[in-house]
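Need Aldolase's 3D structure for a figure. Predict it.
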Amino acid sequence: MSHFQKDDLKQKLVQGKTVYGTCVTSNAPRWVSVVADSGLDFVFLDTEHIAIDRADLSRMCLAYQAKGLTPIVRIRRPDPYRASQALDDGAIGVIAPYLENPTQIRELVGAIKYRPLKGEKLEEMLRGKNPSAELKGYLDRFNHGNLCIANIESIPAVERLDDLLGIEGLDAVFIGPHDLSINMGIPEQYDHPDFVATVTTIIQKARKNGLGVGIHFSLEPQRQIDWIKEGVNMVVHSSDMALFSQRLRADLHHIKSSTGDFGHNGGSEESVTV
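Structure prediction for Aldolase:
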């Protein structure tokens, strides 16, 4: 898609559109075309939990860009150097996990919006010192379209949410439901009233601050629909691995139940969520 522009995803959000993505773990060459034909706006490439090396990550980012999809990369830890590295590799959006204090987000903004500046000069700008018009123009062009995204997935982050979301340069937050539920002491209880109330608070405060907000679920699509109604505008639905597993298990369950083949070749009658 030759008309693809680096700021496509940001412009869709500015226009009030809901954007759709999925987590991709496979680096198989033909997988890019399969994913690109699915009606998505972006792909979520997770280097925190998935074993993707830097060369593969770069190939994936550039291949998805060529297909018109925005690559959003989650780095392994809150590290501005890793954030800059992900952008060098072809990411357009960068997510840092488990952000809990304003300094972490400010450093992430510096790496994504002021790249390639580092060191004392960058610190001066992050403290509010205005750069020369020439430097500002260069940095704006160099980082045009880059998205700075914070993972909110803990109670300390929720308690400091007003301070975190007020950092200039932050574009969006992604809610990590699994880690958040565990941090709350209610592991994987996604319908628990406290979990629902906490996620709702994050969504409302993010949107009030003019930020995009997404939540990543690998469960049934209805959860995504329900949260879109509450204000989510960056849908991160499932992953290639989860969708393959769910569909394969469902198909095998149907085949085995139709042929009476349960109990053979490791078959089971466990329920399947699709």
